[in-house]
């Protein structure tokens, strides 16, 4: 099914194999399988720090889109620890958000608040480097437009004029959604906007999310998942060729990797 390669991260194995057999644009993403959630978080934090250092060595800023949810929270805490904090040039580290709920920045459901509590309050990152989505606005379409304008202003562009992230960090829901790209939503068809508002019927709420074109245009995509509750969807996504899940619409122009713990990866065959 694929080959297992040695990895520099302890207690981790890496599987190289096609994501979907008929989709050559997704050829051989790396699937990192960590022993547990703790090792997963440290492995991803190490990868983020390495990519940031690489950007610094090239005298370039590092632009990352953070994921919300509970899984990445500990990754952000690890990045704020002294071991990692001293390795990162925070003056060139620019934080963006993959999606946001339409709530105030101090609301418990705010992705920004989670990142603030876990990383921003404990690192020397300049406030000018933090680019949050204005979830407190009444109109989600206005919030989406404003955020798209911010991305266009601050990020480099590809030849197709799509802004370029150095890294987009993503999670995956039990329904196969990533960011706020949920099944059966119009945002999945969006080709002309880099940020859009999306109404999620099953949650009866509006969200703002970056879209597939800008995610796929990133230099690096990392998808993280932890726990047995994610095992079924991970197995289905990696084996199903019908593209029934939003995350299967990812067609990265560059590098994509999955970081899973053993529980999330229990249905994957090496």
UniProtKB/TrEMBL annotation:
GO biological process: carbohydrate metabolic process; pentose-phosphate shunt
Protein's UniProt keywords contain Transferase: no
SUPFAM superfamilies recorded: NagB/RpiA/CoA transferase-like
EC number: 3.1.1.31
Coiled coil: none
Taxonomic lineage from the root: unclassified sequences, metagenomes, ecological metagenomes
A GO MF label: 6-phosphogluconolactonase activity
Sequence similarity: Belongs to the glucosamine/galactosamine-6-phosphate isomerase family. 6-phosphogluconolactonase subfamily.
Glucosamine/galactosamine-6-phosphate isomerase domain ranges (all copies): 38-255
Enzyme class: hydrolase
CDD domains reported for this sequence: 6PGL
Record-given protein name: 6-phosphogluconolactonase, eukaryotic type
Organism per entry: hydrothermal vent metagenome
């Amino acid at each position: 099914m694929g080959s297992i390669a040695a990895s520099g991260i302890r207690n981790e194995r890496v599987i190289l194999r096609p994501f979907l057999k008929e989709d050559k644009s997704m050829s051989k993403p790396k699937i990192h399988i960590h022993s547990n959630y703790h090792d997963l978080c440290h492995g991803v934090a190490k990868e983020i720090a390495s990519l940031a250092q690489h950007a610094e060595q090239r005298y370039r800023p590092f632009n990352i889109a953070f994921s919300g949810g509970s899984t990445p929270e500990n990754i952000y805490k690890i990045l704020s620890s002294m071991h990692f904090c001293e390795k990162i040039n925070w003056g060139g580290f620019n934080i963006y958000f993959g999606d946001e709920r339409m709530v105030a920045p101090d609301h418990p459901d705010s992705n920004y608040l989670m990142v603030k509590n876990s990383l921003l309050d404990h690192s020397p990152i300049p406030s000018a480097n933090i680019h949050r989505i204005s979830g407190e606005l009444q109109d989600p379409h206005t919030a989406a437009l404003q955020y798209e304008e911010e991305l266009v202003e601050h990020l480099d562009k590809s030849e197709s004029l799509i802004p370029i992230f150095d890294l987009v960090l993503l999670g995956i829901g039990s329904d196969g959604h990533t960011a706020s790209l949920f099944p059966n939503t119009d945002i999945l068809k969006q080709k002309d906007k880099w940020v859009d508002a999306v109404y999620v019927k099953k949650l009866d709420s509006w969200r703002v999310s970056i879209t597939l074109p800008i995610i796929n245009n990133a230099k690096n995509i990392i998808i993280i998942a932890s726990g047995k509750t994610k095992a079924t969807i991970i197995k289905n996504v990696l084996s199903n060729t019908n593209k029934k899940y939003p995350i299967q619409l990812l067609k990265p122009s560059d590098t994509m990797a999955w970081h899973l713990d053993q529980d999330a990866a229990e249905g994957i065959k090496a």
